[in-house]
Amino acid sequence: MSALFLKRFLQRPLQVASIIPSSRALVRKVSEKMDFSKPRVIAEFGPGEGCHTREIARHLTPESRLLLFELDPEFAQHLANQFRHDPRVTVLNIDAAHLTEALAARDLPHCDYVVSGIPFSILDPEKKRELLRRTYEALAPAPHAAFIIYQVTNELRERGHCDHFARAESEYCLQNLPPMFVTKFWRTANGHQSPVNGRRNGANGASRNGHRSNGHALNGAGHR
Prior knowledge:
Structural class: alpha/beta
Strand order of the largest sheet: 3-2-1-4-5-7-6
Number of helices: 8
Shape: globular
Radius of gyration: 17 Å
Number of domains: 1
CATH class: Alpha Beta
CATH topology: Rossmann fold
CATH architecture: 3-Layer(aba) Sandwich
Largest sheet: 7 strands, mixed
CATH superfamily: Vaccinia Virus protein VP39
């Protein structure tokens, strides 16, 4: 376990939200949700000490860009030092709500993926709605583009907070402390798995075969 991660958790438990970084299994599940076969623009919210960031950077093409939004100044400095020799990675010690402005400042029209581990369940409702709206608008209107989250609860899907996304798939990663839901929200419906009967696949959505995308009850309760 990273000493920095433990230190920042003890100092800011609500912001860091977990006492240890993500497991290798969780990192792999999240990275597998992305297609790295082409140059991509990816934003990561709350990268912490960088366990997901390192995996993403490992797969990126030389032309890709990775924007890291980290509010904690010590984590931000740690990330800046860690990726100081990688021109693809930009560390921003600002709120993720500034995603649109950060993209525009770099002449980047859209993100291909937004990855987030920030604890949405504890955010102020208005701030949550605004961040989700900005995330949706920042994603490219393309079949691959998606918002990918790993959370202790699955409230963004189950409570309909992300119904404006075209569809969603969730799976549960038990090989992490605590166990996490990994959910992928697509910006648009693609040709492989379109919404059932024209409905969006949000809180009550289903995959093409009419079943949930994983075998677990996704009520998000009892996992906090």
